[in-house]
Amino acid sequence: MSTQSARMRSMIETRNRILDVALDVLGENPDAGMGEIASAAGVVRRTVYDHFPSRLDLVRTLTERAVAEMTAVLDEVNASGAEADATWVEFVARLWPVAHRYRVLLALRRGEYGEAIHALLGPVDELLADLVKRGQDGGVFAQHLPAGLLSQVAYGVVFAIADSDRSNGTPGVRAATITSLLMLGVPETRAIDLVGDRP
Amino acid sequence: MSTQSARMRSMIETRNRILDVALDVLGENPDAGMGEIASAAGVVRRTVYDHFPSRLDLVRTLTERAVAEMTAVLDEVNASGAEADATWVEFVARLWPVAHRYRVLLALRRGEYGEAIHALLGPVDELLADLVKRGQDGGVFAQHLPAGLLSQVAYGVVFAIADSDRSNGTPGVRAATITSLLMLGVPETRAIDLVGDRP
DNA sequence: CCAGTATTGCACACGGGTGTACAGTGAGAT
DNA sequence: ATCTCACTGTACACCCGTGTGCAATACTGG
């Protein structure tokens, strides 16, 4: 049906290249301007505005991408029917690369577009809170904090550790997962068991 | 010796008012301009520049204040000679109000003045890392992460929970302390014991 | 009362990012 | 071969925050 190939294709390709590069550039410096993004994508600033009328449109599209990927992972993982702590381990493992790519969103949540991003990220936050709530109700997670806050802090920590990957060697998924599990109130022995037997 | 009282006093007072207000305003919105700070302090923008030649000077002074207060607390707490986990509890308790006031620094560490702030915050980071390292060597803290990173993430969590105070009611020091202890690898029972018996 | 000075209330220059306009170019579509 | 359209290159207007300059004002100390 869509036979308008070559033209369409290269246009979509540039659009995607802009998005990919924007993620990298903004990941390095959340305050980067459209000019930097354009240059990094091997394109003129004007062209970026052809694809995304405003900077907010760019960021929004990026966020929508992230939300789509994250909810996909969360839905899949939730469907397994496993215990909450095991589900969390699976979640972190699957989300690790994604979280690293979209780490910029955590920085972008404060300032200027914070409101818009927060709104788009709402569904993800809910799914996350639900998972933690399930763990608390099941007695596998601690209850020092309300589920909503605990889930935010927990995956904030995962993002933070993923961030530090850029500096030192590689704390890696394993360390991040264990740390988040501990914070969720899972005993150390159980935490090590959960992450121990995996590919 | 310093008998130039009334004049000096009111000038110092405005200076301090500017600093205090700047902490509040920047706490709400780290991107606030000198104009907003001036207005909030009941002063004209030009006056702020009389006290602080540049925006960086303002932020630097704020940071120096924070470093002074934090190192004071850390030194005092470290001198008690108690176990690392007990010391951590004391540390969080004493630092709680301070951390809440200076929460903006965590946001300001990224972007523009990040480098300068990071440099000034260096000593605090070291003291914190030393404390965590001591706990790891003593076997009371877990070792999934290197002391430097673990300490950063741990007090990042404390700041994050302090931040959320503004939104919901009051998770409070207790919840924040327990959460950070858990993440440091302290067993839940021990953690509750540690925070349980205090004024 | 008079001098000194912190503060005010304007003014402006400067830099930097955003978003737009428009003529030109080159590769694919017809 | 010609048309179409994504992309180029350059220019411009606009907004906003920073930092500076200077005369006027108010308030305090001698």
TrEMBL record, chains A, B:
DNA-binding region: 33-52
Keywords from the UniProt entry: DNA-binding, Transcription, Transcription regulation
Residue ranges of every copy of the HTH tetR-type domain listed in the record: 12-70
Protein's UniProt keywords contain Cell division: no
Keyword Transcription regulation on entry: yes
InterPro entries linked to this entry: Homeodomain-like_sf, HTH-type_TetR-like_transc_reg, HTH_TetR, Tet_transcr_reg_TetR-rel_C_sf
Pfam families: TetR_N
Coiled coil region boundaries: none
PANTHER family xrefs: HTH-TYPE TRANSCRIPTIONAL REGULATOR BETI, HTH-TYPE TRANSCRIPTIONAL REGULATOR RUTR
Full protein name: TetR/AcrR family transcriptional regulator
Taxon lineage: Bacteria, Bacillati, Actinomycetota, Actinomycetes, Kitasatosporales
